[in-house]
Write a structure and sequence with these properties.
Elements: E1 6-9, E2 15-18, E3 47-48, H1 50-55, E4 59-66, E5 69-75, E6 84-89, E7 92-96, H2 104-112, E8 118-120, H3 130-136, E9 142-145, E10 159-162, E11 165-169, E12 172-176, E13 185-188, E14 193-197, E15 201-202, E16 210-211, E17 213-215, E18 220-221, H4 224-234, E19 241-244, E20 249-250, H5 254-269
Parallel strand pairs: 7-8, 8-9, 9-10, 14-19
Antiparallel strand pairs: 1-2, 1-3, 4-5, 5-6, 6-7, 11-12, 12-13, 13-14, 15-16, 17-18, 19-20
């Protein structure tokens, strides 16, 4: 009997189970949606398979950022088009916000960097092909925040659910912050690099500024109270670099940048400057 294909949503890049026909995307809950909880609203039912993605002309762009941080990105982009990050440590490697495809090029690249010992994501929009990546490296654990379990498109025994904070590898912390989605999280390395996904968003036109959004495509901001909660939670940790899912970085003094951006966001969203509008 032929194996059924794994389906990958062309809009989101999320891998869904192997079924005879494509399923409905877990991030599309219809016209009358509850997108405030994190779905991406209606999108066309276009699907690919891993085999089709391999056959398409593409390349994997790789950057080394120092201090054991490597970024990977598919060109031309597919799905959301996120950058994935491989964190090298003396205790194993973490794959953060994994790619939404697998082929021999990207697998050989990752193997050459030492392979993968654990996988984690910032939020459900970045689940991508997390289960296939786990299976490719011996069914290693995939860490998913428990508040985002409802959005898992492909259940599997490799998934490990966590709350508040956990350490997938010695020296790497996953910290729950919420905001963008209920379970949104960041990864913090032992030497102070913060991988933020969409929990904290970059501002492409201003390299020393960040933003805090509930819905990034629609530019819907988070409330002042939630931004304050995120920044206060991060105050317990030291970090000087910040990387987000679209490839933008804050290369130095990141904690000060986050604080300054948060204070401006809170003051504007609280109405302090309404007299200027």
């Amino acid at each position: 009997m032929d194996r059924m294909p794994l389906w990958i949503c062309d809009v989101c890049g999320l891998e869904h189970p192997d079924t005879p026909e494509p399923p409905g995307c877990v991030l599309d809950r219809g016209e009358v949606t509850i997108e405030e909880r994190g779905d991406l609203g209606p999108h066309p039912e276009h699907w690919s398979t891993h085999e089709e993605l391999v056959a398409q002309p593409h390349e994997t762009v790789h950057h080394e950022h120092g201090r054991g941080i490597h970024s990977l990105h598919r060109e031309p982009r597919f799905g959301i088009g996120q950058w994935s990050f491989l964190v090298q440590t003396g205790n194993g490697n973490l794959l953060w916000d994994p790619p939404n495809y697998l082929d021999e090029e990207v697998l050989e690249l990752v193997r050459g960097l030492g392979g993968v010992d654990a996988i984690a994501t910032s939020h459900p929009h970045m689940f991508a092909a997390q289960v296939s990546w786990s299976h490719a490296f011996g069914r290693i654990p995939v860490y998913v925040n428990a508040l985002d379990e409802e959005w898992v498109p492909r259940p599997d025994p490799v998934l490990e659910y966590w709350d508040d904070e956990t350490e997938p590898l010695p020296g790497i912390r996953l910290i729950h912050l919420g905001g963008h989605m209920r379970g949104s999280a960041v990864a913090l390395t032992a030497d102070g690099t913060l991988l933020a996904g969409d929990t904290i968003s970059a501002v492409p036109t201003h390299p020393a500024w960040v933003s805090f959004t509930r819905n990034y495509p629609k530019l819907v901001p988070l409330s002042p109270a939630v931004v304050r909660r995120i920044v206060d939670r991060l105050d317990a940790y030291d970090y000087d670099r910040l990387f987000v899912l679209n490839g933008y970085t804050v290369d130095s003094d990141a904690k000060r940048v986050v604080h300054r951006s948060a204070e401006s966001h809170i003051r504007w969203a609280s109405g302090e400057f309404d007299h200027l509008t």
